[in-house]
Design a protein that fits this description.
This protein is an alpha/beta fold and about 190 residues long. The chain is about 50% helix and about 15% strand. The protein has two domains: about 10-50; about 50-185, Rossmann fold (3-Layer(aba) Sandwich).
């Protein structure tokens, strides 16, 4: 494995070319890596521009905001931030009330002012039906169940696995879009 990494920022129209070069560089440097690992990387890169959705990221730590939003933006999502649970609650309800609900809310559980579980409960009590995914460093089955009991649709852990994150967001965003299509379809 390479003991260093290189981060390059490029305009989106160069993204596919950059991914090609990154994979080519990776394969040349890590020829002895297993073929399965290479397939995982290729699969992740293939997903990176297919996600078209609006995500509210409720996260109080700037480093986590940057990392998670990087993955989501590279995958094609539009990302909005909330620094605590109260702000997330306010933004989500405001967007929903104006007809622009988020496709997915990623809700950190331990935040100041109003924690993620309390924010999720208040959203559900207010009639919010959109997807809410808990994102937390706590990994026990009890913590997972607490998040689900609060009203979260799913749960993922930190450190964030980019494949899992993109898969979860894609799943719930497409589920919402399918629901909107069936509600908008008029049978004559």
């Amino acid at each position: 494995m390479i003991p260093y990494s290189i981060c390059i920022s490029v305009p989106k129209n160069y993204l596919n070319r950059l991914m090609h070069y990154a994979v080519e560089f990776y394969t040349q440097q890590c020829y002895s890596e297993s073929e399965e690992r290479l397939k995982q990387i290729m699969s992740y890169l293939d997903k990176m521009s297919n996600l078209e959705c609006r995500v509210l990221l409720a996260e109080d730590m700037p480093d986590n905001q940057r990392l998670v939003s990087f993955y989501l933006k590279q995958a094609g999502a539009e990302v909005f931030f909330a620094d605590n649970g109260q702000i997330a609650l306010d933004i989500a309800l405001e967007a929903s009330n104006h007809g622009f609900p988020f496709d997915v809310i990623l809700m950190d559980i331990q935040m100041p002012v109003l924690n993620g579980n309390e924010a999720t409960k208040k959203l559900r009590e207010s009639g919010y039906t959109g997807a809410i995914i808990a994102i937390t460093a706590h990994t026990s089955s009890h913590d997972r169940q607490t998040c689900l009991d609060a009203g979260c649709d799913d749960y993922t852990t930190k450190p964030v696995n980019p494949n899992r994150l993109i898969d979860l967001v894609a799943h719930y965003a497409s589920k919402r879009k399918r629901k909107e299509l069936t509600e908008d379809t008029v049978i004559v």
